[in-house]
Amino acid sequence: MNSTCCDSEEFSMAAKIVLSTWYGIAGLATIVGNAVVLWLISRNRSLRTISNLFLTSLAAADILVGLVIDPVYILFRCLLFKTDTYLQTYSKAIDYLWIHTTVATAFNLCCVTLERHIAIFYPLRYEDIITYPRCYVLIATVWFMCLVLPCSRFLVEDVSVLPRLYFSFAIITILIPMILIIFCSIRNLKAASMQSRRITVNTAQNQDVVIRRKKNFKTAKTISIVVGLFVVCWLPSLVTSFVHCLGKRLIFYTVWKPVEALALTSSAINPWVYCLRNAEFYQALTGTFRFLRRRNAAQNGIRRSVKR
Known about the structure:
The chain has 308 residues and is mainly alpha-helical. 83% of the residues lie in helices and 0% in strands. The chain is globular, with a radius of gyration of 22 Å.
């Protein structure tokens, strides 16, 4: 899905500066946000749940984007000039990194969405279906595919074959996960909204069941927000790859770099959505950082005074 091997169109210096700034800000936000998520999970035992195992894997995939992909793109996309040595030496490696990033992000989001789907539709069988050994096997499989699937790029030498190769990767790593994620998220939201209406009608339910269903509903909304951001960030990459496959190379070279930067920005957005919308993460975050604790206490005091 990359164009480094045939990127004959150079951007202007101003465009390179904008792209470098974009990559730099997105990379810094990605590192800070996902490092905070991983640190909170390692520090708070209450966050070490089966559900958060998949969030941990997603945060690990995202933090690699900030630590590796963004600096590499600043260097090779914006600072270095395209030469024959560059094309022969670095293009395949950068393509490998790009495909690896796409696979890791998309497949981990699939795992997160499927876990929530099972939690909402099969609450009584959840603990039997989602077990720690199965989660470890699934996460290991995802990372194994992240490492192995991009290796096919090193087997291709013919430049004319690359557009079809990139488009096939786009279907496998973006289109299929996107369809699965959207389908599960729509079902999750419908089921969660129905459960929420039942809770309001039948107030005599078991309190634990009510709390669990409310939590599932809020989690489903959070996942849907993440999915929506995933579609917004990655759909342009899929469309651009399709345009490249049709032979519209001038359009492809014009829009690919901004589209690529937009796709990588999704790794910076995910952790902030989790921390702001997930009550357990937010509580752990405010309990860890004193200035957030004081701010939260001040906001609660203002709300109480307004209610009075």
